[in-house]
Every structure is written in structure tokens, then in C-alpha cells.
Amino acid sequence: MTTLSKEKIIESIRVVKDPDLQRDIVSLGMVKEVEIEGGKVSVHVELTTPACPLKDKIKQDVQNVVSALEGVKEVAVQMTSQVRRGPSLLLQQGTPSGIKNVIAVASGKGGVGKSTVCVNLAVALAQTGASVGLLDGDIYGPNVPLMLGIPAGSKPGVSSNEKMIPLQAYGLKVISMGLLVPPDAPMIWRGPMLHSAVTQFLQKVDWGELDYLLVDLPPGTGDVQLSLVQTVSVTGAVIVTTPQEVALMDVRKGIAMFQKTNVPILGIVENMSSFICPHCNKETAIFSQGGGRETSEKLKVPYLGDIPIDPRVREGGDQGKPIVTSYPDSPAAKQFTAVAGTLAQQVSIVDILGGNR
Ligand SMILES: Nc1ncnc2c1ncn2[C@@H]1O[C@H](COP(=O)(O)OP(=O)(O)OP(=O)(O)O)[C@@H](O)[C@H]1O
Ligand SMILES: [Mg+2]
Q1: Which residues of the chain have pLDDT under 50?
Q2: Phi and psi at residue 147, in whole multiples of 5°?
Q3: pTM of the model
């Protein structure tokens, strides 16, 4: 009889692959600890995000291979996660050291539901246990506070090191021009407020430790977008679109801008993709459908998924109750959660493999 050893167990786990990273979880450094007590084996696996949709599959795969080893009577697999800080954020200055990933949410065209998608993705990521911040980068039309039900007149405090303290909503840390202007914005904010305000928000806010900071950018490819990606390091960008051809044309412009500035594209989200009747469940493609996926294939960028049209999405925005919290079982909320998981995977790919630059 061969004796059981840690090495043998780790060797057996090498067949378990992370399908996104396309490498085995041992060489990815995800197997943290193996303990043997008689025939009882415990394995600690650390994933790169708590939002990983493959968590259960990876756990089961480890369970299966270790159980099959001679001498093993019982296997306990402990799954934890630790979001990593990607190479782009490690190498460059400009992003506070507690922030592991900055995700810019952009759209070529206005009114495609970018803020709605940004808010729901942020809450969905926080629901998985990740620490998440939301920076409302829409300086002239900030509506994130309303969408998150932050009471009018709420003001961020100022910390002892002269940084702003973000507000809290649904487990998110939030900052927005809507919380500052006018009339009594703190002095430190008045001067730098308008020029490169998003960069200031990133650097002069006491964000603390964050796995993901989502930035809701104003629509288009103007100065705010450029100053953000040029002065700080961004992990990557999410492009929100609707299925209409006009919106898709603008997607190409948005993608070109990010690629020119070496920002990886984390993927495209198609919002208002179809209407699912709440009464009969029949699906109608009001604005046609599938253009987001086709565009992503054509431009060779990841496709993160689609979100249906649902009046409850809009109501949630108007009432400050994101649909992922108020109707978590609705098709739209489930899609937001799925897109958040796929997004977190794409972030891990950029952090570990360097992304699709
Ligand atoms: N999937 C959806 N189903 C129903 N309504 C939606 C959906 N997505 C967004 N909306 C609604 O569409 C409107 C526009 O959305 P939103 O403000 O998020 O767009 P935006 O792209 O951020 O706009 P802007 O370009 O002005 O910043 C809002 O009333 C919002 O509630
Ligand atoms: Mg918006």
C-alpha cells in the first residue's frame, strides 16, 4: 500500500483546471493548504474572486480527485477567495494602494442604461461578499445617489487626512458629485472639482480596501474618460450598449478609445435586450437582439451577457432599490448576477494573465 502524502494529494489536484484561466489551480497558486489526519483530508482552495460562478464546480472537482486516491476516507474542501491586484495597478502610480481593481463602465451612446447596469453590477458583486466601491463619474448628471436611495442632502465627511469619506448604500462605498455640489461642498473640492474630477474622486476619497471600484463614466468618449485612463491605472472597461445598430456603432468608437490608451476591454453588456412579459413570460425582442454578442465576436472582446427590459428595473432605479435587491429572483436580477460573475472572471483573467491588450 502506498502512503498518502501532501505531495501526492497536490499532484492529483493538478488535473483540476480553472476554465477561464486555462491553467490548473495548483500552478495558479490557489491550493493553499492540505492537511492529512488518518484517512481524513482537508484542502483549502483560494479563488481569485468571491463572485466566481464556477466555485461549486471547482470544489466538486477537487473533492472527486482527492476522494479517488488510495487511503482517503473523507475529504473536506474549504473554499475562500482573495481578489488579486493586477499588474497594471501594481506597476503604475495614481490608484490608491487599497484598491485592487478599477473597472470603468462606459458607453458610446447616452441613455443605454449604463448607470443602471453599473449600480446593479456593483450591488451584485457586493452580494457575493466582495468589497465594492462605486464612483459616479457623471459629473454633470450624477444619478447614482438616487438609484441607491441615498437621502437627498447626504454629505460625505472629511477624514483626518483631508480625504472624503464615501457614503454607504447596499454594502457599497459611494461617492458622487451629486453628494457634493452646491452649495456647501468642502473647500478642498472647489478648485479641482471640474477638471479631471473623476481622477480627484479616485485619489482624494478614503476608499480603504476595495476588491472592485466601479466607475460610472458619462456617455461618450470625451475628456473625463481620457483623463481617467491616462492618469490612473484602470484594470479594464465594460461597455454597455443596447441592441440598436446606432448604439452598436458607438460601441466600436468606445472600444477603439480604450484600446488606444491600452485599457483592456473586460466585455460588452447588452442592456434592454428583450422584453419578457411578466404575465405570460413570452420574450419579445423590441430593439432586436444579439447585436452585442455579434459585435463582441467581430471585435474579439468578451461578451458579458444581456439584461432584459423590465419595468421593475426602472422602478428600482427611481425608488433607490436596485432590482438585484428588491426582486432577486426576476430574470433581470438573475442576469445582472450572472453578468457580475462573468465580469469578475474577466477581471481575474486580466489580473493574472495580463488581459487582452
Ligand atoms: N433593463 C432595463 N429595463 C427597463 N428600464 C431600464 C433598463 N435599463 C435602464 N432602464 C431605464 O432607462 C433609463 C436610462 O437608464 P440610465 O440612466 O441607467 O442610462 P445611462 O446610460 O446611464 O444614461 P446617461 O447616458 O444619461 O448617463 C432609466 O429610466 C432606467 O431606469
Ligand atoms: Mg448615467
Answers
A1: 183, 187, 190-191, 356-357
A2: -65, -20
A3: 0.91
141 touches ligand 1 (CB under 6 Å): yes
Q: Are residues 32 and 135 in the same domain?
A: no
Answer whether the bond into residue 183 is a cis peptide, omega within 30°.
yes
Tell me: do 293 and 336 sit in the same domain: yes
Residue ending a domain, choose from 26, 50, 81:
81
Index of the ligand 1 atom closest to the CA of residue 309: 3
Three cell numbers, residue 176:
458622487
Task: Give CA–CA dist 66/74, Å, rounded.
Answer: 9
| CA of 116, closest atom in ligand 1 | 18
Q: What residue owns the CA closest to ligand 1's atom 18?
A: 113
Cβ neighbours for 57, distance < 8 A, ≥ 6 positions apart: none
List, for residues 257-279, the tens digit of each pLDDT value.
888 888 899 999 999 988 877 77
**Does some domain include residue 1?**
no
Do 269 and 139 lie in a common domain? yes
pLDDT recorded at residue 262: 85
Show the domain range for 68. 6-81
Q: Looking at residue 30, which CATH number applies to its domain?
A: 3.30.300.130
For the Cβ of 196 lying below 6 angstroms from any atom of ligand 1, the answer is: no
- Model confidence pLDDT, tens digit, residues 130-139: 999 999 988 7
Do 178 and 142 touch, CB atoms closer than 8 A?
yes
Boundary-marking domain end, from 52, 81, 110: 81
